[in-house]
Amino acid sequence: MQTLDGKVIVVTGGAAGIGREMVLGLARAGARVLAADISGDAIASLDRELAGTPLAARVRSMRIDLAQPGSGEVLVEFARRELGPIHGLVNNAGIGRSVIKEDIFRQPPRFWEMSEAIWERFLAINASAAFRTMKAAVAAMVQQGEGRIVNVTTSLDSMLNAGAAGYGPSKAAAESLCAIAAADLRGTGVVVNVLIPGGPVDTAMIPANAPFERRSLLSPQCMVAPLCWLMSDAAREVTAVRIQAHLWRDDLPGHEALGLAAAPIAWTSLSGQLRKPATTAGMPG
Asked: Does residue 2 fall inside a structural domain?
């Protein structure tokens, strides 16, 4: 596990599911972490779990709705005030297809069955929230000459599959934003990458009536090792890559694990090679 002593990292959607595991993993690695979440119940549960443990001194929580204008600045200012200058930002907050209907696997929701309000909610949480937090955090990161931004998007299949309207396009928008931000920030010391599980994960986003065994799902803990490495000093030059967490080998040195688990961010392989290679170090050939 990478040592993250002295790092301040913000994780959105940080009180439950994948976000909770990332918050705990980062804190165990030595970081001071802000877990931001819209769910008061999830935050209360996380706070109770940490109370009286060594991690309690490293984790702060905040209830916030990142769909609201100005929420990015509120989040970043709170983190700076409570924990100090921000080293890393993890945009994990998101909503899944079950907000449209419960039985999403046996009867996938067709795009015309979605209300405009739900479509706008997908974009607000899965895409616009990441824009708000990145915009709010990046100026200070550039000024300090270092920063890590990691956005949790989804697999290409989940962006394109039937029944994925709302979820797929909003996650695709977030990944496109990551690719553009990585290019905009090249040379500043601030790097931007994407981290995805690489398959369905055993969280509340998968309904209880899903037609497969829960034990076949990926564990949300698979995100921890690659995330901690991306936040470490070893990854300071790695930018514009997409990592599939389930392919990460924690028994290997970080750049070797990266070679097994990473590909260029977004769809740059289809762009006519307009951009330079995705990273200055460690990208598989």
From this structure: no
Catalytic residue IDs: 167
Write the DSSP assignment of 38-84 as a string of letters: S-HHHHHHHHHHHTTSGGGGTEEEEE--TTSTTHHHHHHHHHHHHH-
Domain contains 252: yes
Length of the chain equals: 285
In a domain, 39, yes or no: yes
241 closest CA partner among 187, 194, 273:
194
Number of independent structural domains in the chain: 1
Domain with 185, as residue range(s), is 8-270
Q: How far apart are CA 283 and CA 256, in angstroms?
A: 9
pLDDT (tens digit, 9 = 90+) per residue, 194-244? 999 986 655 666 656 666 766 667 677 889 999 999 999 999 999 999 999
R_g of the chain, CA atoms, integer Å: 18
